[in-house]
Amino acid sequence: MFKKLIGWNEHGDLPESPGVYAWYFRPELTNYDIENLIKDLAKIPDDNVLGERAALVRDFLYKRIFRYFEQKPYYVELTGQLKPKYRGELNHQPSDDLSKALVDRIAASPHRLIKLSQYLQESTPLIASPLYIGKAENLKLRVSVHKKMIGLLKNQEVKNQLLFLQYEFSNEEIDFANRVVDRAIPSSRLYVAYQETAGGGIEVDLENLLNRIYFPILGRN
Description:
The structure is a single chain. This protein is of the alpha+beta class and 221 residues long. The chain has 2 domains: 11-26 and 129-212, GIY-YIG endonuclease, CATH 3.40.1440.10; 31-122, no CATH class. It is 43% helix and 13% strand. The protein contains 9 helices and 5 strands, in the order βααββααβααααβα. The chain has helices spanning 31-42, 49-64, 100-108, 112-122, 139-153, 156-159, 162-165, 171-182, 202-214; strands spanning 19-25, 74-78, 86-90, 132-136, 190-196. The strands form 2 sheets. Strands 4-1-5 form a 3-stranded antiparallel beta sheet, with helices on both faces. α2 packs across α3 and α5 crosses α8 (171-182). The model has no long low-confidence stretch (mean pLDDT 87).
């Protein structure tokens, strides 16, 4: 059974044993953010719920939640017999995924965000998509390396010298940390769940299966 979430400052509690681990991001809508949205909405007439008020709510939800979970572009190729070929990237548009009815309800009654925020936090990790799933011969060491890499890349001067970091860190560790930093995901909202294994390489197979079942948002697949 996967263990409960370990917070950013609690990684010292991880065991020094083989296993698999998953990084999660717990989104947060602070009372401060919600109060500011309510103040901004109050400046717009109530009869404009479907106009500026809805746009304000969409922008709020994207910046505070959805941008962290935005999928990277897909590279696609379309071909057909005796047809032209098309290649290129398809970009995820997370704001287009938002339910119009949801946006309208929040625009009309933004205080409902306070309760929604509570439930959102409690959803992790029970029904949350993992950011990343990895394997380790030493869980404590592996996760601490991820943490160190994320900290290093927050320094722009270090980030500009990724080539040198490859001598100390693997490409997987660099890629994951890079994606976390590029999305400006707050470290304080990152958590790890883990499962110890019996060793003998079973963690390799388990990680392989889990990645292909759950497709982590910042994973390698």
